[in-house]
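Anyone? Bumping this.
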Amino acid sequence: MNETGSGARETSFLKKKFSEHYSRSLPVPPALAQRELGFGWEKKIDYRHKAFASPGEFRSFMVSEAPLFVSYSTAYYEFPGARPMEKKGYLGSDVVFDIDIQHTEEPHAHNSLICPACIERAKEDALRLAEDFLCSDFGFSQKEVSVNYSGSKGFHLHVLSDAVRQLPASARAQLADYVAAQGLDAARLVTGAGDKTREKGAAREAIRGPGSKSRGWGKKIFDYCAGFVSGASLESFKEAGLTRKEAERIVSEKEFVLKKMREGNWDAVAGLDKLWKKAVADAVAAEKVVVDRSVTIDQARLIRLPDSIHGDTGLVAKKCDLKRFNPLTDAVAFPEGLARVRAEEDLFVPILGKAIEVRANVPTDVPLAAAVLLLCKKKAVLVQEY
Amino acid sequence: MDALVAAKYPFTSFAKKYLQAAGVEKIDSNALEEAKSRVIAAVREGGRGAGGARGTSEATRAGLVSYALARIMLAYIGKSGVSRKFALREARAAAERLEAEDEELFISVARDFFPSAAAAAGEYSVSLPDFLKYGSGLIHAGVEAGKVFMDRGDLTGVLREAITAKVMDLPKVRASEVPALVREAAEELEEELPKESFTGFAGKHLALSCVKKILSGMEEGRRYYGSMALAIACIRDGLAREEAKKVMEQYAGNCRRATHPFTAREALATLDWVYKHPAIRFSCRTMRENGLIGEYCESCPYRFKKRGG
Ligand SMILES: [Zn+2]
């Protein structure tokens, strides 16, 4: 046993704490009796094919066994405990989107224990997914979309609507691809804007693009590109490859250019054609949401049970209102109490609005939430519980 | 709904009702001949052909009967390659007829497939779940507030996919329940069909090394796309659904060893979808985009084709 790996003492401490938490607050998935559950103590899923007929049965299991990881099927089954899978009697499944940003590319002081910047970025994506795609485009009501923090780096969005339960994998793939802009051929939406070499003197194909009445990805690309033209300065047009003369003309005729764009003419003034290739690519990159497509497509999948504790962090996979949610305070399972831990390296835990520091090999009293996180991560040993 | 409309769109629920109400009179040899020639024409055209008015009695009441008989014969013969060509031809012909229809009839045929279909201000819409039942290409579609907006041409295109799926979905017939006269005609039909329609593609796609690799099982995250590629290979190779089912079950078995299982049910659902969308093409590019293959294979006949067929 490694000095700072969680050993038997740490595991039993975590189990005790998890059990206490579940005796106070028990997550019950909607339609529990039709869900398959999976549990993990060592791995995320040590065993699965578990079913519970009632919330009471589920509660006593959770309190007595205190699994470190709990996941449930996005599918509904007639016999969720049956195995193999074919015997379960598939009845349909929710559509789930999983945003799990491993490490945002934007420069920041990344904290490999738990990174507020990366979570914040995932939260922004989750919000865009909920608002721009699931509600605006797909038309699901806020009531039909249940959002929860994953308990670690990302967010899960569950569409709990009868309208989607029977969708086959091919339809789910189309939804995932739409969100992630996978297979989007921008040349179909903005035509004639390619960078093909033209013969001298040959008439150039007029550039047509989406307009103010466009929908779907056309609208997203229009809004982004019109926004770019509207906000760009002389310098930014020049940086985009236009000559000074072209840039000056666009700046002085901006309203005209935008009016024409709203009508679908992206070619009103000379030089505009040089903008679109990059601007359209930027639009797609900015508007798409990277999701784990297999989570959306697979129908036999188990996913973290909302409001259960994530055994890698001790944070709750809490259902949340993204606009006012800070996982590192709002998803803390153990907001009170202290524990003494010792780590082998200097560590820094940003939790509960504090910056908790643990110096290498110095037994330190830290808030219980920080202690649980360090023990879950196997980055510290328990010296003393209070 | 009059007889003519029912005959022009024999796959609709109102045609079915019409036929039930009118009752099927004695099956005569003319109707059977008509049905046979309908299938043979489809096979000769290879599921493509020029389309347009057929110049036969397809759009008459007799045509409605011949459509129904043709499908029973196809179900009896059980050759998916032939059914596929038949469905493609029927759908193409219907799509061409639809172009000429007035708004009211056009939308009533559309609603038969997409109950949410609506027309307003010169454009059409269907609900997102309705669209997803048959339509493809959501990513380029006019999606807004849970609806997919289209012009008439695009809606006709989606309808064509839906019609193909419906025509392909043959009735389940037991050989013993097929009237002797129809059975004999079906057997004659099978004789008359050009042989290459059964064997022309056999094994071509399934023998590709990339497809064999997929069959040996894909890892998590690629399993659905793998099942899609495999199902397309099956339909392009002209495998009957039952034969294809065995291929898919084998694939699901090979994929099973992962955290999240991939079940035969999932693989078969993909197969069903593909067999209802027989126009779908085998595409190396899509396989590559979905991470199923790394590089295009040197010796592959489909190499460099964007959408090889
Ligand atoms: Zn970070």
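Late reply, but here is one note on the structure posted above: Residues 80-99 of chain B form the longest helix (20 residues).
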